[in-house]
Design a protein that fits this description.
This protein is α/β, with parallel strands linked by helices. It has 15 helices and 14 strands.
């Protein structure tokens, strides 16, 4: 089976972003299939290719994957109009590949929603099977956040969302809310598979020896957030909790931020201006280095802005990294992950926009180390039982094989 795979943000483990597409493409190769991965250049990502671009692209084999990288730079620091232009340019250049390259099935993963356009045309013009993966519900999320307000743009996104779902032979959703959102657009449940993000069980496996960041003592409780520092992440909630901890005199609890994003400079500036010396900031790290840092962490922070559309409509990579590392998770918004944390006793969930409760939960974890250790063991068992990357990748391969 020849798979033409569209993912604008594809990265290998040498990059600092999620590696779902890399792992799934590798599993397709291991099953004897061929994969052509069409992606674009992005800050913090590593496609595995080097050397100059020729006519706006470069191509080469990366761990058995035929990677086609388009020279379309992208950064979370870009303005919304600039990002929209990049999304459209990627879609337009991908259409040419979808109409000319040899393949048996097209797979496209969002976001952005425009990634599905080449798959739609491959289905309509070449009669090829098309599988569409939905990582976030668009335009529901940007509409709920108020990021996109133009009614014409929202209407166009609604139309593209509907067309993407109904053009696909199968859809894949990464959370229960995403699957429900696809069904609300009229797609039958038997055409939708739920395959959440997975846990890298070997990479993040707990270690007895770990190095901690400078300024963190061996007896301190270290809680870490890893990922994008953007509007959707609501990281001011963590700084609010940090201020509350200092008011309580709890200097034995440290908060670590690993990653980058448009709001990171403002977060760093606020921490400095308010004297929040219990907050530490690290730049984005390749996944193998992130795993090394996480071996010295005690608690994973699952934080998002208080937007109801997020409650069941996201599947954040960081959660699955945390539980793979045997870390209890402190979650600050309701939804399917909060329910899972409570049901498996692998952390704590607090109400959104409540720094007192957030700080209180961190204090509780710092003062009940035996229970903290039990929660960590429960988290690791949950990762092994339900979210092993290999098992999920095999399920993904099965979906693609079923449509060919």
């Amino acid at each position: 089976m020849r798979v033409l795979y569209f993912h604008q943000y594809f990265t290998t483990p040498q990059g600092s972003s999620g590696t779902r597409s890399y792992e799934f493409a590798r599993r397709l190769v291991q099953h004897g299939h061929t994969v052509a991965m069409v992606c674009a250049s992005s800050a913090g990502h590593s496609t595995g290719l080097s050397g100059p671009f020729r006519r706006g692209r470069r191509r080469g084999a990366v761990d058995g994957i035929d990677v086609i990288e388009l020279a379309l730079s992208y950064s979370n620091y870009d303005s919304l109009p600039s990002r929209a232009v990049t999304f459209l340019r990627y879609a337009v250049r991908s259409i040419a590949l979808a109409l000319t390259l040899p393949y048996d099935v097209v797979f496209a993963t969002s976001t952005p929603l425009t990634a599905g356009i080449p798959g739609i045309l491959a289905r309509l013009l070449r009669r090829k099977p098309f599988v569409f993966e939905v990582r976030d519900l668009w335009p529901e999320l940007p509409r709920a956040m108020g990021v996109v307000r133009n009614p014409l743009v929202l209407r166009a996104m609604d139309w593209l969302e509907w067309l993407s779902y109904h053009s696909a032979s199968r859809c894949i959703g990464l959370s229960p809310g995403i699957v429900a959102g696809i069904q609300r657009r009229g797609v039958p449940g038997d055409r939708i598979a739920m395959i959440p993000n997975g846990s890298d069980l070997d990479l993040f496996a707990p270690r007895d020896v770990a190095q901690r960041p400078a300024g963190v003592g061996p007896a301190d409780l270290l809680a870490a957030f890893t990922g994008a520092h953007g509007r959707a992440n609501g990281l001011d909630a963590v700084l609010d909790a940090a201020a509350e901890l200092l008011r309580r005199g709890r200097r034995d609890i440290k908060l670590l931020f690993v990653g980058d994003g448009a709001l990171k400079p403002a977060l760093v500036a606020r921490a400095a201006s308010e004297g929040l010396d219990n907050c530490l900031f690290l730049d984005p790290l390749p996944k193998y280095r992130l795993a090394q840092v996480m071996h010295g962490v005690d608690v994973g922070l699952m934080v998002l802005a208080n937007v109801p559309a997020f409650y069941y409509g996201t599947s954040p990579n960081k959660f699955f990294d945390y539980i793979a590392g045997g870390l209890p998770v402190l979650n600050n918004y309701p939804g399917w992950l909060a329910d899972m944390i409570a049901g498996n006793r692998c952390g704590l969930a607090v109400p959104p926009d409540d720094p007192v409760a957030f700080a209180g939960a961190l204090e509780y974890l710092a003062d009940h180390r035996a229970e903290l250790a039990d929660m960590g063991r429960n988290a690791r068992r949950l990762a092994e039982r339900e979210f092993g990357r290999s098992a999920l990748a095999d399920r993904f391969v099965g979906v693609l094989e079923s449509v060919v």
